[in-house]
Amino acid sequence: MAIVGRTRFLKEFPAALHEGSAAVFIGAGVSMAAGYPSWASLLREIGDELGINSSDIHDLAALAQWHIRESGGATGVRNVIKHEIGKDRKVPETLETLARLPLRHIWTTNYDRLTERAFVAVNRPIDVVSGAKDLSLRATPGAARLYKMHGSVDRLDDIVISTDDYELYRSRRGAFSTLLQAHLSSMSMLFVGLSLTDPNIRHVLSLIRESFTDAPPEHFALLRPPRKDDFASNKEYRARAAQHRLWAKDLSRYGLLAVEIDDYDEVPALLREVERRVAALRVWVSGSWPLDIPDPHTASLYRFSENVGRLIGTSGRDLVSGSGMLVGPAAIAGFIESLREGGGWDVDRRLIVRAFPQPLAGDSADKARWTALRTELARLAGVVVFVGGGKMTGGLITPADGVMEEYALAKEAGAFLLPIGATGGAAGRIADELMGSAIASSGPDAQRPKDEELQILANSAADLEQLTSLIADILKRLAETD
């Protein structure tokens, strides 16, 4: 994989996702990975009826057009698509990961339902826009939008397949091109599984080229260079490899940076790394403390939690919270205060709260629901700061069971575990468990602070500023890890 393209992609695209300015374009390669046929394979039967080998035809839209003319209608072509694309195949891991990313806009030229099913599997709402008139419909609050610019297998009477459909695209479905151009102008877009030879895509890219002749917006395309085993002869391989190198460089005219991969099997792992880096920008402050203990430590714990929340806000990260007793509200207060200094306009995007329902007098807590909420918080956050975590047992403060459960869930989810042992309770117990453990403390797979850092964070004599400064240093180091 090209190092420069990979490094920039893993730095810039996760940042765009975090800021809400990222989009994805899903091409035919993703559907083929799920077992759907290529265009040439899909139209093989159509070509056979015409006495033409579809593999020998470069303009497959023309092949569909010829069949429609010869047969007197598009029914035959549509039946082939219904039979081959209408089947539900296993959703590829690439789409499973994309469905978990904070994407709001997804584009595709594919007809299948793979993307919709990937979103349904994680119980995430998605609005499907497959016809030009659908673009005028009001978006569902909180839902991602899937723009199927060539139509969908669910609406075979309104798909793009023939030469006529392509030539009349601007008059019939031109709103898609206009909106795609707007997204390409204002967002960072990732192209996955796309050959970039689609005439409509090339038209929109040319419009971007006209609008931004010197400095077009930057986008990324995951590309696999040709390999020797793809071809029957070394001569053909060398020719295609040379063509690929020139084509990849030429993409820069459209603001596209080629991110080369050795094999398509690498794409899921690469997207999981993107997911990890986006999650690292979300910090969960886990902890609690009894409110009816009027001692200096309780007041100090509140001030420290406020400082942690403020630090998360000023560092550009999002705050994740279950709003537990004392610690959660204090962290939220500090976080909101830091954002208000800049106007506070993005607090609705950057504050992620899942408040735990508290039982009324005489009722029992809904433990299953609490575990479900904790599991969701662990999935959302890439870093978990443990502060306090105590409960009253026989007149003594003991580690809170809930915070220990959150520790186990965060550990299982692969989050970076950052216990402030000096605050006592569960945080102290977690710090003891991590000290000297086999869990990585450095490198890209780090999941805990270094032992010397854990010792400082567990020092009850350390002042609040020293502890907060060390947390800031650790968060900065995590952001710089490649």
From TrEMBL:
Database matches in Pfam families: SIR2_2, STALD
Taxonomic superkingdom: Bacteria
Taking every annotated instance into account, which residue ranges of this chain make up the domain NAD(+) hydrolase ThsA Sir2/TIR-associating SLOG? 266-477
Coiled-coil stretches, from where to where?
none
Q: Tell me what this protein is called.
A: NAD(+) hydrolase ThsA Sir2/TIR-associating SLOG domain-containing protein
